[in-house]
Specification:
β1 (about 90-95) and β2 form a beta hairpin. The protein has helices at about 1-10, 10-30, 45-65, 75-90, 110-130, 135-155, 160-175, 180-205, 215, 220-240, 245-275, 275-285, 295-310, 320-325, 335-370, 370-395, 415-430; strands at about 90-95, 95-105, 105-110. It has about 450 residues and is mainly α. About 45% of the residues are buried. The chain has a 3-stranded antiparallel β-sheet with strand order 1-2-3, covered by helices on one side. α5 (about 110-130) packs antiparallel against α6 (about 135-155).
Length: about 450
């Protein structure tokens, strides 16, 4: 029995999860205190309940043979789409996004649970299409990414939508999708964001007219550039078909196609998808002092809290800025700021180390699993955890934009906590069923 238990469970992962959850509950509890030392919130009690249920879900997922779900991936895809569409139409609006379902104070965030479904869907697709042509495989997988990504983006929930991107990229990379296709997505994504925020950058950061940005703010000029870059891309594509041995035409169509698509998508994002405050968030981290009492407030206070913690911190329940409510969303997005204020650099190092253990175990499973489906599932889980960690910690430090991504296991919230714990349960299942099964 002991051998079987050790075979099923990864105790390094379980230890890391319990340690992170314990820290999370401690600082969710601390975030409820006000400046006179009275706890005015009961979020920590709900977090304890969610964590207890999450542990059961994680262990059940670890025991369950993940491989049996591969044949149901098509059903998962349509279930995921139905949930996201229903949420967009009938969900509750919170913090500007219609991304919740529930009754009264009880609610769930379907886009969080859909991450699990999406990981299974994209992993199943790549495991079943190894004999497809490179272009066909990439095109279909891109469609499987863009549909849920777009549905979440129009809620609008830019933070949660962004998590699907690294899940897709890591699974695609491990599955052997050519690097030029992956770089096309990365470059296209970066340019789309850049073109979207440049007008706001000119107005808020530079605070003077920049001639080159007029190409984006003047709709006629933008349309001309879109048409011109699209025409050059088409010419390059035709040249590639006629002169197949000459790669110059291919790279012309490659780069001009990316620029054309990025310009078009940035216009759609700016005018039809993203709210003004979301675009502003994407650049305010460059200089939060331009709006210190509004969009720049969170970053400024978060930096102050982290800096005031020093090496060892001010002590548990002794955080001055958090108890004075200087940190908005302090039990969710900015939980790391409270931890750093009260436990200092040492506390942050502990969190980094525990996350490092989880990520290393993900890589270990990817390296040692023979089943292709399991490899791609593990890669998607690795991408999800890495993204959540880098973006949230970078956000509270002021080196990345504020996107509303929680720090898994520490931030208050049941949906993200259960999603993370089920994913690690699945990872343990992959580890214990490591041999190929075909």
């Amino acid at each position: 029995m002991k051998i079987r238990i050790f075979h099923l469970f990864d105790f390094l992962i379980i230890f890391s999860v319990i340690a992170l959850i314990t820290l999370g509950i401690m600082f969710v509890y601390s975030s409820g205190f006000n400046s006179v030392g009275v706890n005015v919130k009961t979020e920590y009690a709900k977090q304890i309940i969610w964590a207890s249920i999450g542990l059961i879900l994680m262990l059940v997922a670890a025991i369950f043979d993940y491989r049996v779900v591969e044949k149901h991936s098509r059903k998962f895809f349509f279930i995921m789409l139905a949930l996201l569409v229903f949420t967009r139409l009938f969900g509750k609006e919170l913090n500007g996004a219609k991304s919740w379902l529930g009754i009264g104070p009880f609610g769930i965030q379907p886009s969080e649970f859909c991450k699990i479904l999406y990981i299974f869907v994209i992993a199943s697709f790549f495991s079943r299409t190894a004999d497809w042509s490179e272009l066909k495989r990439f095109a279909f997988s891109l469609g499987l990414f863009l549909v849920p990504f777009g549905l979440i983006l129009i809620q609008p929930d830019m933070g949660t939508a962004s998590v699907y991107f690294p899940i897709f990229l890591l699974a695609a990379f491990i599955a052997g999708v050519p690097l030029r296709y992956i770089m096309m997505l990365l470059l296209g994504g970066i340019l789309t964001i850049w073109f979207t925020v440049l007008p706001e950058y000119e107005k808020e950061i530079a605070q003077h007219a920049i001639p080159a940005i007029r190409l984006l703010t003047d709709i006629k000029l933008r349309l001309i550039i879109i048409a011109a870059t699209g025409a050059v891309g088409i010419i390059g594509l035709v040249g590639t078909l006629i002169y197949q041995e000459n790669k110059v035409f291919y790279w012309i169509s490659y780069f001009f196609g990316i620029i054309c698509a990025s310009l078009l998508l940035s216009y759609v994002a700016e005018h039809y998808v993203l709210k003004a405050y979301q675009i502003r968030r994407l650049i305010i981290f460059i200089n939060p002092e331009i709006d210190p009492r509004n969009t720049g407030w969170n970053i400024i206070q978060s930096r102050r809290a982290i800096g005031s913690g020093g090496f060892f911190g001010e002590g548990f329940l002794l955080g001055n800025l958090s108890h004075k409510r200087y940190l908005p969303q302090q039990s969710t997005d900015f939980i790391f700021s409270i931890l750093s204020e009260e436990f200092g650099f040492v506390g942050g190092l502990v969190v980094f180390s525990l996350y490092f253990l989880i990520l290393v175990r993900c890589l270990f499973v990817i390296k040692n699993t023979e089943n292709h489906f399991g490899i791609y599932v593990s890669a998607g889980i690795f991408g999800m955890f890495l993204w959540h960690f880098l973006v949230n910690v970078g956000m509270v430090m002021g080196i990345m934009p504020i996107t509303g991504i929680p720090l898994l296991f520490l931030s208050y919230g049941g949906s993200s906590l259960w999603t993370a714990m089920v994913c690690l349960g699945v990872l343990m299942s992959v580890r214990s069923h490591t041999h190929d099964w075909r």
